[in-house]
Design brief:
Length: about 150
Amino acid sequence: MLPENNADAEEFEEESFDDFPSPPPVIPEWARQEGNQWQRLGEFDILAKAEELTGLSLEIKYEPLPVGVWGIHLVRGERGRIFVNSQLPPFWQRFAIFHELYHLLNHTKGARFWQHTFVSMESFENRADSFAWAAAWPEWEENQYCDWN
């Protein structure tokens, strides 16, 4: 959908994928320890390791998701799926996979449960981002995907 007027056009531009976050000044020690074991793994190995840890049959699907949605994960019964926004550049797709993977590994009771606890949802998102940064750090540092379109 294209914006109808100038005000809408400015809002539309702000929602593009042109502005990505900078890495944190420090990655917490817990995230480095957990993320190290996922560094440089290919997609197959990520899924195999995650399946072993979760007991789920997992898959990753790349789909055009709404702007601002990098990824989501769904679990139904013994199956899980990570949806990644196919419009993201390759590095940020990997980041989204690791972010959603953290939720699969650590937040198994679902969003409704966590929304009713005394811990803010923002802290869960921050922890997932810290884990994703730690897991993807070598690729970021080496600018591994800079020549991919």
